[in-house]
Automatic annotation (TrEMBL):
Signal peptide as annotated in the record: none
Record protein name field: Uncharacterized protein
Keywords noted in UniProt: Membrane, Transmembrane, Transmembrane helix
Membrane-spanning residues: 21-41, 74-93, 105-121, 127-143, 155-180, 208-227, 239-258, 270-291, 296-313, 319-337, 344-363, 383-404, 416-437, 457-477, 549-570
The UniProt record lists the keyword Nucleus: no
Length: 573
């Protein structure tokens, strides 16, 4: 409600006052931050049941359909993350680069935060689906605002991808309704999906729903159908990119997968596809960065989403939540550092964020990757090797992104302003220490079960080796090597293209030859049926017409004997 108040004030009272709206948004966001911190502290220190509130929104006979909210450990963690990101974003908006901001932008951000909070707290399909759509609508309002000046092509691609994602989500809802007993609306209450009704679903129905939910998450994340539409945004304001990725392209699809994991994980095929899709996304984004290092900004976010999807396929839910937290805080530090004055503190925070994403020990990113590899190592050797490849590609791609960002000059207009990158950089270190000290207890607190294996020597050494190899390769990926490697890859691409064209021409010539041969055979068959086979009949007919009856009978008998002999001779062979 506090975030929703920001939206109302931003469109009415604060419409003509930028500074007043900025102060009002910061005040309301600070209150929300204090509330979220208190809730997280209470749930981490005192054992409580999940808080919930609901009311009857539909009564049919003796059946009551309820709608409300539910606050558990995961949602309290995410609420604290949302409140923290909101404070940091508002501080970034005070930078001189964002002085053209108007009050309605704060209102749209408030609407977005209200929708994200509602999504986290929703315990009903109706509110969950409504808040998810509202998140996309809020991002659309930000994209289409004249202040940001985004390319219309990017807006169109974002809208179509989101609509396709929600269409897939709607398919899952319709499937739930169709397979519920007596077509009941019980499925709308999320706890019903997780408990009594899910075991009664048929395997085919589970495949349809699980596949639709996973496809919906991938579409909302922007992975398909355009592969990567964010490179078409064309705006120079990094805050918009942070907002879009944090809430629409990362948190929304990740939480969708987590909220419905009890249905999705019952279908082994869909889980296997998540593993494969996550690995392919990471490798493909790394290759794209090698081909075009200037587009690292467009592919780094998609690669991070791919890592989260890969971890989801292996059941590392605690890894997903903490890794998502590390990614979002790191992006705030990276973009915030670019808008601050050059100083040792700013550069130090920038390095902490980048090295965390790369996974350099002893920072938190390395322990997260090691826990994922250790979890996979205890289940499958094949996927263990794939996880090492994913870690290597992640370190390689993130290091390329780091080198490209480091070459860009930092803005010198933020002097005299308290650097907003210090707090998230300290949080990155603190979360890493928390995960290192007692990560199993954190997973038990989040999901009430342990999903990671204990740290072992072999996975730890191989993870560190994968990170080191990825960093070394990317560090050698200088401008000269980049140009040489890119030119060699372009040359190989041209060779493959020319070979494909030659092969295509050969196939076309072969096709034309086959067509000509078929035409010749067809003409031969027609000639045989219309000229040669009727020829003996014409001879007999003419002889019979010119001769007497006995002569005609003899010719028919002789012709029949010859044809019979030929028939049996050919048949015998």
């Amino acid at each position: 409600m506090l975030y929703l108040s920001m939206f109302v004030i931003g469109l009415t009272v604060g419409k003509g006052s930028h500074k007043g709206m900025a102060r009002c948004s910061l005040l309301l966001s600070s209150i929300a931050f204090v509330m979220a911190a208190g809730i997280l502290w209470e749930r981490s220190t005192v054992h409580r049941d999940d808080y919930s509130y609901d009311f009857d929104w539909l009564v049919i006979g003796d059946i009551f359909y309820r709608i409300g909210y539910e606050l558990n450990n995961v949602s309290s963690w995410l609420l604290m993350l949302i409140a923290s990101l909101n404070i940091l974003l508002l501080l970034l908006l005070h930078n001189k680069q964002e002085q053209q901001m108007i009050a309605s932008i704060y209102g749209y951000i408030g609407l977005l935060l209200s929708a994200v909070s509602g999504l986290v707290l929703a315990d009903h399909m109706l509110t969950f689906f409504t808040c998810a759509i509202l998140i996309s609508c809020s991002v659309y309002l930000l994209l289409s605002h004249p202040v940001y000046g985004c390319v219309p092509k990017a807006i169109f691609r974002f809208v179509t991808a989101q609509l396709l994602g929600f269409s897939a989500f709607l398919v899952a809802l319709v499937g739930l309704y169709w397979y519920m007993p007596d077509h009941s609306l019980q499925f709308t209450m999320l706890e019903t999906v997780f408990s009594s009704s899910a075991p009664s679903f048929t395997p085919f129905m589970k495949k349809i729903i699980a596949g639709a939910l996973v496809v919906s998450a991938l579409l909302i994340a922007g992975i398909s159908p355009y592969a990567n539409w964010m490179k078409h945004i064309g705006t120079e304001r990094p805050v918009l990119r942070v907002v879009m990725f944090c809430f629409a392209n990362a948190l929304l699809p990740a939480y969708l997968l987590l909220r419905f994991h009890m249905i999705i994980t019952e279908v082994d095929t869909v889980v296997w596809l998540c593993k494969l899709a996550g690995a392919i996304i990471v490798v493909w984004c790394t290759v794209r960065m090698l081909l075009d290092a200037q587009q690292t900004l467009s592919y780094i976010g998609m690669m991070m989403v791919g890592i989260i999807v890969f971890a989801y396929g292996h059941g590392a839910y605690g890894y997903m939540i903490v890794q998502l937290t590390l990614i979002l805080f790191s992006l705030i530090v990276i973009y915030g550092a670019k808008m601050q004055s050059s100083s040792i503190i700013v550069y130090g925070a920038f390095l902490v964020a980048i090295l965390t994403l790369i996974g350099v020990p002893p920072l938190s990113g390395y322990w997260m990757q090691q826990s994922l590899v250790a979890t996979i190592a205890g289940t499958s050797t094949g996927w263990f090797i794939v996880s090492l490849l994913v870690v290597l590609c992640s370190a390689l791609g993130t290091t390329i992104y780091f080198t490209m960002q480091w070459k860009t000059q930092f803005n010198q207009t933020g002097k005299g302003m308290l650097p907003v990158v210090i707090l998230p950089a300290l949080l990155l270190i603190a979360i890493g220490l928390l995960w290192l000290v007692d990560y199993m207890q954190l997973e038990i607190w989040l999901f009430e079960k342990v999903t990671s294996e204990s740290m072992k020597l072999l996975p730890m050494v191989l993870t560190m080796l994968s990170v080191a190899v990825g960093v070394i390769i990317a560090w050698l990926f200088s401008e000269r090597i980049t140009d040489a490697f890119a030119s060699s890859l372009e040359q190989a691409d041209q060779q493959l293209k020319s070979q494909a064209e030659r092969f295509g021409r050969s196939v076309m010539r072969l096709g034309r030859s086959i067509v000509s041969l078929e035409q010749m055979i067809e003409r031969g068959v027609v000639q045989l049926l219309t000229v040669w086979l009727p020829y003996p009949f014409r001879i007999v007919s003419r002889a019979g017409a010119n001769g007497h009856l006995l002569h005609s009978v003899v010719l028919v008998v002789v012709f029949t004997a010859v044809v019979t002999a030929l028939w049996y001779g050919i048949r015998g062979r």
